[in-house]
Here is the input.
Amino acid sequence: MDASIPVVPPDWRDTNRAHWDERVPLHVASDFYDLDGFMAGQEALRDFELVEVGDVTGKSLLHLQCHIGLDTLSWARHGAARVVGLDFSGPAVEAARGIAAQIGIPEARAGFVRADVYDAVEAVPEGSYDIVYTGVGALCWLPDIREWARVAASLVAPGGFLYLAEFHPLTDVLDDETGTKVVHDYFARDPHVYEAAGTYADHKALTRNNRTVDWQHPIGDVVSALAAEGLRLEFLHEHDVSLFPRFDSFERGDDGYYRFPKGRPAIPLMYSLRASKP
Here is the structure.
């Protein structure tokens, strides 16, 4: 048996969709997403993403696994001529459409599509985009990284690029308390099945659909999958910051990022890459 082939529970998609559908209204109302701040013009994108993606003025951009669309709409605010967000959650797509209407971005400039990411080629309105953008916390919900790469690469227009910002898989092997002990296999292909109430945006929220199924993908698998589809890697950057208090020992800096305490050796907590189509 090929060890790189993931184990896939038959109900993984329905299980995860129910989980995300239930959490959409919690996220819309949360301080974490701060919809009021976003409506007032607050930046939703990370500073390194803005630098690494560069000027999007006049370009078309597809955001895979867009959730409620704040990042998608931010690229429109930065000048993209046309953005499309895709997500498998119907409530998330409806929320994104509502937010776009509230901030005055017309459907002609920002469209949202409900579909599984593996079905994106058939679901999105255009055949290709100048930029295919994805992250943060998206890849772990997909069992087959090769198929993801095939779909994503096929939607990049010639001369365009794919940009990915993700949590570093190294963090998945460490203990949750201190992040100092290796307790999991970095190369594991088995799914992680969890039962946890609440959400990262509101840990105290009362929820019913608490089971999730996810997978970890080593960086080598991600890069190799994109290369196999003919994309050329322009850069792979590793970052010593996180967007969440992933470990109990994390401290929040003035810049809003989470890090290990000062004096502790740093490890990569996120990574970003850009891969272009000739």
User: Anything to note?
Assistant: The chain has one domain: 12-276. The CA atoms of residues 87 and 208 lie 21 Å apart. The first helix runs from residue 12 to 28. The mean pLDDT is 95.
